[in-house]
Amino acid sequence: MIFTKVRPRLSPKVRLKFDRRTDRYLLLYPETGLELNKSAMAIVHLCTGEWTIDEMVDHLIRVYTDVSPDEIRREVCGFLDVLADRGLLQRVS
Amino acid sequence: MNNEHRPYTLIAELTYRCPLRCPYCSNPSDFAGRGDEIDTDTWLRVFQEAEALGVVQLNLTGGEPLLRDDLEQLVEGAGKLELYTNLITSGIPLTFERLSRLRTLGLDSVQVSIQSSGPSVSDRIAGAPSFNRKLDAMQWVTSLALPLTMNAVLHRENISDVEALIALAERVSADRLELANTQYLGWALKNRVALLPTREQIERARTVAIEAKMRLRGKMEVLFITPDYYSEYPKSCMEGWGRRFIVVNPEGLALPCHLAHTIPGLHFEQVMQSRLADIWHHSAGFNRFRGEDWLPDPCRTCERRALDFGGCRCQAFHVVGDAGMTDPICSLAPGHGHIESARAQANRTTEIPVLFDYRTGRGCSSR
Ligand code: SF4
Ligand code: SF4
């Protein structure tokens, strides 16, 4: 589980690229990549090393008023888990 | 544009030449001499056309791509197109200066293939002293802050070495470790008796790899690629025929997978003669196994067909003799007996010392 006081930052080894065919962002890393949907993109935008996970969740709860806070927390943690699993995050604490 | 068939990755096989001679090289083994390689300008045009088709990843491979004198120009061209460029190499011949220049020109990541965790076995498998030079190469990659993937192709001779391979990957601070089992096509198919591990060996290696994956989570990604000879169902080879990948081989033939042209009766085009977009959309070879109409029984009605597309066409051809049949790896396939007998043979021959034949001539990428 990710410790929620951690401030995740996207590893400098990944590249975010706008995909003009799908109007989505792609997260490119060695020999593979992830296609980001809207919520994943919103989370990635906050992976700057400045936000703690708690702060990210709070911020997104304020922006996405139509989604339940529980769901937002689950999505943030789940997606950060995916990124961490693949070594795509650095932790700044 | 239709995203069902959109190439994301271009695999550019820049040359067949390679200073090493690994017996599991998966390129066609009928290669005698060195054919003509396509030139710099053609490659640069192919990169452009690939990008226009939707490609975002470029794998520069071979043989040994470092043997191309114009690698710098190619990396620079790919960089201008914002392709994520991966160099897939044996690490030989390389200097720190050259790697550093490639990085400046836009190289994004490097994969170094190693044969074993120590010099003696490694150099014997590769057929040349190479281990220490690979270590140097890997250290240069990380010192330049490029993502490093260490790739080890597993077979009977080195599969008991998995702990040491993991330790080595940690020592060189690899970002990713790929423990790939040999694909039994091309040369490796001819050497299958010598190379195929037993089920116990695979299970043990898998357990070790899973433990390492948990322990190294966040530091290093550990990928254990199960050999399909011991799986119940096939993998989706290349994520589906003509669906996500384009391979262009050193002579300029555009293919859905690097062995597709070894299947008789399929027609593929040269990038010198046709635009990549025309090839992608209209090539009879690319279209042959797209969609579901071509599917044989039992795939036609199987629920897994959207996951594995009936498996690998090359394996169906090279093992069963018909590229249009279900991949014999599948336990439901009519040709599955071929795989069962290969497994049984692997289990019988554990005590027999492994002898490697050495390839001469053409190299290939490590997968
Ligand atoms: S029958 Fe065909 S679709 Fe079903 S699992 Fe086997 S190979 Fe895949
Ligand atoms: S190209 Fe083939 S021979 Fe050369 S290092 Fe790779 S696997 Fe070995």
Cα end-to-end separation of chain B: 31 Å
**Structural class based on helices, strands and sheet pairing of chain B:** alpha/beta
Number of strands of chain A: 5
Kindly state the percentage of residues in helix of chain B.
25-40%
What is the average per-residue confidence, as pLDDT of chain A, rounded to a whole number? Answer: 87
Q: Distance between the terminal alpha carbons of chain A, to the nearest Å?
A: 16 Å
Number of alpha- plus pi-helical segments of chain A: 3
* Number of distinct helices of chain B: 14
Overall pLDDT of chain B:
87
Could you name the CATH class of chain A?
Mainly Alpha
CATH superfamily of chain A: Coenzyme PQQ synthesis protein D (PqqD)
State Rg of chain A: 13 Å
Please give a handful of descriptors for the protein shown.
heterodimer, A: 93 residues, alpha+beta, Arc Repressor Mutant, subunit A, three-stranded antiparallel beta sheet, two-stranded antiparallel sheet, 3 helices, 5 strands, globular, B: 367 residues, alpha/beta, nine-stranded mixed beta sheet, 14 helices, 9 strands, disordered C terminus, binds iron/sulfur cluster
Question: What can you tell me about this protein's structure?
Answer:
The complex is a heterodimer of chains A (93) and B (367). Chain A is an alpha+beta fold. Chain A has a single domain (7-87), classed as Orthogonal Bundle (Arc Repressor Mutant, subunit A). Chain A is 39% helix and 26% strand. Chain A contains three helices and five strands. In chain A, strands 2-3-4 form a three-stranded antiparallel sheet. In chain A, strands 1-5 form a two-stranded antiparallel sheet. In chain A, strand 3 and strand 4 form a beta hairpin. Chain A is globular and about 35 Å long. With 367 residues, chain B is of the alpha/beta class. Chain B is built from 14 helices and nine strands. Chain B has helices at residues 40-53, 71-80, 96-105, 119-126, 131-143, 162-171, 186-190, 192-195, 199-215, 276-282, 284-287, 305-308, 313-320, 336-348, and strands spanning 9-13, 57-61, 84-89, 109-114, 148-154, 176-181, 221-225, 245-248, 254-255. In chain B, helix 1 packs parallel to helix 2 (71-80). In chain B, 53% of the residues are buried. Classes of the chains: A alpha+beta (93), B alpha/beta (367). The A-B interface holds A 12-13, 15, 17, 19, 21-22, 26, 28-33, 84-87, 89, 91 and B 1, 3, 6, 8-9, 54, 56-57, 59, 82, 84, 86, 108-109, 111, 145-147, 149, 175-176, 217-221. The structure holds iron/sulfur cluster (2 copies).
